[in-house]
UniProtKB/TrEMBL annotation, chain A:
It comes from Kribbella rubisoli. This is Peptide/nickel transport system ATP-binding protein/oligopeptide transport system ATP-binding protein. GO terms for biological process: peptide transport; transmembrane transport. Residues 31-270 form the ABC transporter domain. InterPro entries: AAA+_ATPase, ABC_transp_ATP-bind, ABC_transporter-like_ATP-bd, ABC_transporter-like_CS, Oligopep_ABC_C, P-loop_NTPase.
From TrEMBL, chain B:
This is Peptide/nickel transport system ATP-binding protein. It comes from the Bacteria. InterPro entries: AAA+_ATPase (IPR003593), ABC_Ni/Peptide_Import (IPR050388), ABC_transporter-like_ATP-bd (IPR003439), ABC_transporter-like_CS (IPR017871), Oligopep_ABC_C (IPR013563), P-loop_NTPase (IPR027417). It comes from Kribbella rubisoli. The lineage of its organism: Bacteria, Bacillati, Actinomycetota, Actinomycetes, Propionibacteriales. Keywords: ATP-binding, Cell membrane, Membrane, Nucleotide-binding, Transport. PROSITE patterns: ABC_TRANSPORTER_1 (PS00211), ABC_TRANSPORTER_2 (PS50893).
TrEMBL record, chain C:
Belongs to the binding-protein-dependent transport system permease family. InterPro entries: BPD_transp_1_N (IPR045621), MetI-like (IPR000515), MetI-like_sf (IPR035906). Keywords: Cell membrane, Membrane, Transmembrane, Transmembrane helix, Transport. It comes from Kribbella rubisoli. CDD domains: TM_PBP2 (cd06261). The lineage of its organism: Bacteria, Bacillati, Actinomycetota, Actinomycetes, Propionibacteriales. This is Peptide/nickel transport system permease protein.
Length: 354, 356, 337
């Protein structure tokens, strides 16, 4: 495992140690049809993911709708059971643990959800919501649950007096803070955050992003971040995995991925991000992918991106490109990768346009 | 499209009066509720000509969507109290009867919405919905309208439009649905198109396609476009002018270049500082705006932004007591802020610009 | 779609089969469990003065001494191909569908039911038409004028409609419109044929309105709630943004969606009523299925009660099936998936 660049990595003592490792992870949702409800196909939501997560880092899964990033998050936290493949957390295979066996693990692996409105029970007070994990896991707290909850509220930037209030009394950003406080209650080691800021206003987004970063530093947290906003992902991640139709097409260090993207899909994705700069409008240097993401029910054969790729050749329709390390720490699944050798991103873009 | 002589004369008179094609003056939209009056829009003005695009930027509750709905006359009667003037090609929409405004809706002004799945009726085919929009304002047979619908679908880039015209919205992908919505909005060749968060629900590669499409269609139809969004990147793609809204009022108004290159209002600075930029060096930390947006029932006195502003203390207490007017700083770049030009210049040069 | 239809049909048949088994058990197994012997059951069908021997012979002849599954088999066989009942000196043939044979009145049940279904159907159909039009209409008006005096008065009337029992509103309206003013019939019915549709309606107008009042009230509240929800949908805003007239917005876009759940309830209500509107039929002396059921229950005439139960169950299952299929017609999203 390569370590991340020095610029952003907080000084975590145990860095480099593997906390989570995923091998050939597959999740298919069967589709049944006909009088006898026979299985006629499957939504290939996640189709063979291999990656690992190092303690203290932030790995982001990015991609468009249908790429399987949310399903992956639910598999990692074992809210779903994988169809096949292996998830190893701290040396223990958790792929097929039953609910009871999962219980101790739920302390170590927590999830933050996108919707700060839907994920908090409106009938419970903040104190009850944030204190629930203690009760569920039968954790003894030194000065009682209330004190522990109030400490957590302070930690995420809320006032301890909010203990007896209800979720509807809070704004979106504050609700997301409540969700984060609940997540932190049992001092997890790994947090899977599914679009933690995408429902929030821009000014609030920055507050929550900064909070997540501070907490990571303070508690040596490891994040698996699931997001579609490439700007936010660039800001928070150490490494980034780009997903397309259930597969990882590129996995690299943040700097490499954003400066020298190799997979054409990553290149297109980055070029599609609108930036608040009017000068770029004039340049029109865009790569425009045609059409929408195909359905994960019958994904295109071989390279799944070939239907929208401007570089696709016959081989792309016949042979699936494996995810291989083309540069140190930079894995790409493409027959005709960009930015190899002397090519600069700009040159690649020009080439793509012509 | 040739306009009837009457309309042309209207336009001539309008220009003689110095009115813009769309001219909004001191628009206020208040909603009386049990808890108090919600001042969603509290005095905004802007002008927009044909062929130009205005971006309205703001966070949730800033009043940007309420503004667009009141231009379209879509607030239910009796619920909203609307005052001020909205001139569309010389006709005041606030004073016009509901029936007059209805006849303009869809014909001279049209709107596309954020979530194309919920904005289309699930029980009717895409074609049916476009045909319906066309036939409200054009007395033509269903066959003619259907032919027109197919042409429109083709124009917005839907493949096999003669087949897809009979599909239901749920059979379309998100991007296709938004294309169909655009086809529907443009079916009567409107002079004004309002796009309310048109790409927020879409994937980034599809968003880019839709933004391109809106830009191309605007050139082709020479319509005036208002794009409402929270995403500064999206307005940078499309807008000629930008209005930044905060708590129901305009904080800053200027050309896109002015807003992005020399923003004047601390709130605009805050927005630019809070968003991570993919096109710049990665900053170590984002600079969020402190606090949360205000309640529209109890808007802070003075400058509504003062509790969240880092520079409010420089104004000798004016920020807390006097509401700043939107004033021209020169060249039409307007800002509603008490900061003196010197202080503003200094804050921008030393605190803000280096960190963006 | 075809596969869906077949699956639903198979489901309906299985369901009806289960219903016959359960009803049969209630009427014939439960008394056994309760301690009644075959002779006890048979004793009701013989004169009071006969001896035990004779009762036992009757029990054997009627098949009560056979094991229950044999009796059930005979019953199902009767439904499908008909059966013979050995009654006293003669043997009665009961042609399919044989819903049983009443030993009390010495008649097969099915012809009785067939004679009464039109009455119940007339009552239910007419009432359904009235309540659908008035209930949905009221609901739409109420929703559009939400919070107004009109809305509040309509909803108060609707609340009264839901709360007041049929025998109260029925007797009240009878005493006013029929006995008092003499405008309507005093009960009973004429069958509908081409010569007398006016008389048919004249006889039924009071039962219709009484029954419809109850349902219209519920439908008004349901429609109002549905309309309040759909009129806030984004697509209704889109319809307005297109410049459609308010009438088209409400009827073609708002109501169209609000009607879908009402359709479901309507089908089930109608199916339920076809099994007999007991209170209405009794109040207005209408010889329908419901009245038949009451008479049979009073006489403890089990085969008739069983027959009514099965007919009622059949209509409910049928209504369910039709509703599901209609759903697919109304909502294209159901059709595809």
């Amino acid at each position: 495992m390569t370590t991340t660049d020095a610029e952003s990595t907080p000084a975590v003592p145990k860095i480099g140690e593997e906390i989570l490792s995923v091998t050939s992870l597959v999740k298919h949702f069967p589709i049944r049809k006909g009088v006898l409800q026979r299985q006629v196909g499957a939504v290939q939501a996640v189709d063979g993911l291999t990656f690992n997560v190092t303690r203290g880092e932030t790995l982001s899964l990015v991609g468009e709708s249908g790429c399987g990033k949310t399903t992956t998050g639910r598999l990692l936290t074992r809210l779903l059971e994988p169809t096949s493949g292996e998830i190893v957390f701290e040396g223990r295979d958790i792929s097929h643990l039953r609910e009871g066996q999962m219980r101790p693990l739920r302390r170590d692996v927590q999830m933050i959800f996108q919707d700060p409105y839907g994920s908090l029970n409106p009938r419970h007070t903040v104190g009850k919501i944030v204190g629930a994990p203690f009760k569920l896991q039968h954790v003894k707290t030194e000065h009682g649950v209330k004190k522990a909850v109030q400490e957590l509220l302070e930690l995420v930037g809320l006032s301890p007096e909010h203990y007896n209030r209800y979720p509807h009394e809070f704004s979106g950003g504050q609700r997301q803070r409540i969700g984060i406080a609940r997540t932190l209650a049992l001092r997890p080691k790994l947090i899977v955050a599914d679009e933690p800021v995408s429902a929030l206003d821009v000014s609030i987004q920055a507050q929550v992003v900064n909070l997540l970063e501070d907490l990571q530093e303070e508690f040596d947290l490891t994040y698996v971040m699931i997001a579609h906003d490439l700007s936010v992902v660039r800001h928070v991640s150490d490494r980034v995995a780009v997903m397309y139709l259930g597969k990882i097409v590129e996995l690299a260090d943040r700097v490499d991925l954003y400066e020298k993207p190799m997979h054409p899909y990553t290149v297109a994705l980055l070029s599609a991000v609108p930036v608040p700069d009017t000068k770029r409008k004039a340049k029109q240097e865009r790569i425009r992918l045609q059409g929408d993401v195909p359905s994960p029910i019958n994904p295109p054969p071989a390279c799944r991106f070939h239907t929208r790729c401007w570089k696709a050749q016959d081989i792309c329709k016949a042979v699936e490109p494996p995810l291989v390390e083309l540069a140190p720490g930079h894995q790409t699944a493409c027959h005709f990768p960009e930015n190899q050798g002397t090519e600069t991103p700009a040159a690649a873009v020009d080439q793509a346009k012509s | 499209m040739t306009e009837p002589i009457e309309e042309v004369q209207d336009s001539v008179q309008r220009v003689a009066r110095g009115e813009a094609f769309l001219d909004v003056r001191d628009l206020k939209v208040h909603f009386p509720t049990d808890d108090g009056v919600v001042k969603s829009v509290d005095g905004i003005s802007f002008k927009l000509e044909r062929g130009k695009t205005l971006g309205i930027v703001g966070e949730s509750g800033s009043g940007k969507s309420v503004t667009s709905l009141s231009i379209m006359g879509l607030h239910p009667p009796g619920v909203a109290r609307i005052s001020g003037e909205i001139f569309l090609d010389g006709q005041d929409l606030v004073q016009a009867s509901r029936e007059e405004v209805r006849l303009l809706r869809g014909k001279r002004m049209a709107m596309i919405f954020q979530d194309p799945l919920s904005a289309m009726h699930p029980f009717y085919t895409v074609g049916h919905q476009i045909i319906e929009a066309y036939r409200v304002h054009n007395k033509v047979s269903k066959q003619v309208a259907k032919k027109h619908a197919i042409e429109m679908l083709d124009r917005v880039g839907i493949p096999q439009p003669d087949r897809r015209v009979d599909s239901y919205p749920h059979q379309f992908s998100g991007g296709m649905r938004q294309r169909a919505m655009i086809a529907m909005a443009l079916s009567c060749d409107p002079d004004l198109l309002i796009a309310d968060e048109p790409t927020t629900a879409l994937d980034v590669t599809v968003q880019a396609q839709i933004l391109d499409l809106i830009r191309d269609l605007q050139r082709e139809f020479n319509s005036a476009v208002i794009i409402i969004t929270h995403d500064l990147g999206v307005v940078a793609e499309l807008a000629d002018d930008i209005q930044v809204m905060y708590a129901g009022r305009a904080a800053e108004y200027g050309t896109a270049e002015e807003i992005f290159d020399e923003p004047q209002h601390p709130y605009t600075w805050g927005l630019l500082g809070s968003m991570p930029r993919i096109d710049r060096e990665r900053s170590e930390r984002l600079i969020p705006i402190k606090g949360t947006p205000p309640s529209l029932i109890n808007v802070p006195t003075g400058c509504a932004f003062n509790p969240r502003c880092n520079y409010a203390h420089l104004n000798g207490g004016a920020s807390e007591t006097d509401r700043p007017e939107l004033l021209d700083t020169g060249n039409g770049h307007m800002v509603a802020c008490h900061l003196s030009p010197q202080n503003r210049q200094q804050a921008w040069e030393t605190d803000i610009k280096p960190k963006l | 779609m075809l596969a869906y239809l077949i699956r639903r049909l198979i489901g309906a048949v299985v369901l009806l089969f289960i219903v016959t088994a359960v009803t049969f058990s209630i009427f014939f197994l439960v008394p056994r469990v309760g301690g009644a012997t075959a002779d006890d059951l048979a004793s009701r069908y013989v004169g009071r003065s006969v001896g035990k021997e004779q009762i036992h012979q009757t029990a054997e002849r009627l098949g009560f001494t056979d094991p229950l599954y044999v009796q059930y088999g005979r019953f199902v066989k009767g439904l499908v191909v008909g059966t013979d009942y050995n009654y006293g000196p003669s043997t009665e043939h009961c042609p399919p569908p044989c819903f049983g044979y009443s030993f009390l009145t010495q008649t097969p049940v099915w012809p009785d039911l067939v004679a009464r279904i039109p009455v119940t159907a007339s009552l239910a159909g007419g009432a359904a038409f009235i309540w659908l039009v008035t209930g949905v209409g009221t609901g739409v008006i109420s929703a559009l004028r939400r919070g107004s005096v009109l809305d509040r008065s309509l909803m108060s009337v609707a609340l009264a409609g839901v709360s007041l029992p049929i025998f109260f509103t029925g007797l009240l309206s009878l005493s006013i419109f029929s006995y008092g003013l003499g405008w309507t019939a005093q009960g009973g019915t004429n069958p509908l044929d081409e010569t007398n549709p006016i008389w048919w309606a004249y006889d039924l107008i009071l039962p219709w309105t009484t029954l419809a009042f109850l349902y219209a009230a519920a439908y008004a509240r349901l429609t109002r709630a549905g309309m309040l929800e759909t009129m806030n949908e984004d697509y209704v805003r889109t319809a307005r943004a297109k410049g459609l007239t308010e009438r088209d917005v409400v009827l073609r876009h708002g109501l169209r969606s609000a009607l879908t759940p009402i359709l479901t309830i309507f089908g089930l209500d109608l199916g339920l009523l076809m099994g007999g509107a007991i209170l209405t039929e009794t109040t207005f002396s209408l010889p329908g299925i419901g009245q038949y059921a009451v008479i049979a229950l009073r006489a403890n005439d089990l085969p008739k009660v069983l027959g009514v139960t099965l007919v009622a169950a059949f209509f409910i299952v049928l209504a369910n099936l039709i509703v599901d299929l209609l759903y697919a017609v109304v909502d294209p999203r159901v059709r595809i998936s």
